[in-house]
């Protein structure tokens, strides 16, 4: 058998393709009726590939149908502008709104809470017309490379009383279980993702600075660069 000849060709090692983050939205529903502010959190199902059994805010990825959802009131101009410009390229108004609409859709699907006026319609995926007017844009976080799923998540906040929500009325779902109100000033005894702890700290700081959480505020972006966790104000 003749030995194989070395052709001198160098074998190029191909780096695994980096998974592109998918748009997602999460919402912090806040109850400020008592002396302390509380936020609604629930446990992700154990069958989830991403963050199973951890306690998070309601939320999920943006669906293509979110672009087509109607709404009764638009985002505050400052919130819309921040959503559009917070990144390497500017989003369209429709895509920015779709992120906010995704947050309200997920809140309804995961906790049974509707923010908006009742409006049964066969053409709508839920029986209400979403109201975006009181949403605050709180933060943006991109899942680091190497995870089983990667998301580019925008975090919103809304006060239950402004949205005319009864804080006692919520339902567990297949997506989010053991829903409960957590005092934002307490260190949660629940198992929460690191980024959730960071967002909670931002929320506390925002409430300390101005309990109304004004819409005109700098928005932190959390990314990972060369293995380092980086916070940038947008």
Task: Find the CATH topology.
Answer: Nucleoside Triphosphate Pyrophosphohydrolase
Figure out the total of helices.
3
In CATH, what is the class? Alpha Beta
Indicate the mean pLDDT: 86
Task: Tell me what you see in this structure.
By secondary structure, this protein is of the alpha+beta class. It has a single domain, classed as Nucleoside Triphosphate Pyrophosphohydrolase (Alpha-Beta Complex), CATH 3.90.79.10. The protein is 19% helix and 27% strand. The protein contains three helices and eleven strands, in the order E-E-E-E-H-H-E-E-E-E-E-H-E-E. It has helices spanning 77-85, 93-111, 194-209, and strands spanning 22-31, 38-44, 55-56, 59-61, 116-118, 128-130, 136-142, 151-159, 176-183, 220-225, 228-233. The strands form two sheets. Strands 1, 2, 3, 4, 7, 8, 9, 10 and 11 form a nine-stranded mixed sheet that branches. Strands 5-6 form a two-stranded antiparallel sheet. Helix 1 (77-85) crosses helix 2 (93-111). Mean pLDDT is 86; it is low at 1-16.
């Amino acid at each position: 058998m003749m030995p194989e000849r070395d052709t001198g060709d160098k074998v190029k090692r191909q780096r695994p393709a980096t998974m592109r983050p998918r748009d997602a939205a999460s919402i912090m529903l806040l109850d400020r009726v008592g002396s302390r502010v509380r936020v609604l959190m629930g446990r992700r199902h154990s069958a989830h590939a991403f963050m199973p059994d951890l306690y998070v805010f309601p939320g999920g990825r943006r669906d293509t149908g979110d672009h087509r959802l109607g709404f009764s009131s638009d985002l505050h101009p400052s919130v819309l502008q921040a959503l559009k410009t917070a990144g390497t390229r500017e989003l369209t108004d429709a895509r920015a709104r779709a992120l906010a609409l995704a947050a309200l859709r997920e809140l309804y699907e995961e906790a049974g809470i509707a923010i908006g006026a009742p409006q049964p319609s066969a053409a709508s995926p839920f029986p209400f017309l979403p109201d975006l007017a009181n949403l605050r844009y709180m933060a943006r976080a991109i899942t680091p490379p190497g995870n089983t799923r990667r998301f580019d998540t925008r975090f919103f906040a809304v006060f239950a009383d402004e949205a005319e929500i009864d804080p006692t009325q919520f339902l567990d779902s297949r997506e989010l279980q053991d829903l409960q109100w957590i005092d934002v000033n307490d260190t949660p005894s629940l198992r929460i993702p690191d980024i959730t702890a960071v967002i909670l700290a931002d929320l506390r700081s925002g409430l300390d600075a101005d309990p109304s959480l004004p819409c005109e505020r700098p928005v932190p972006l959390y990314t990972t660069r060369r293995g380092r966790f980086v916070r940038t104000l947008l």
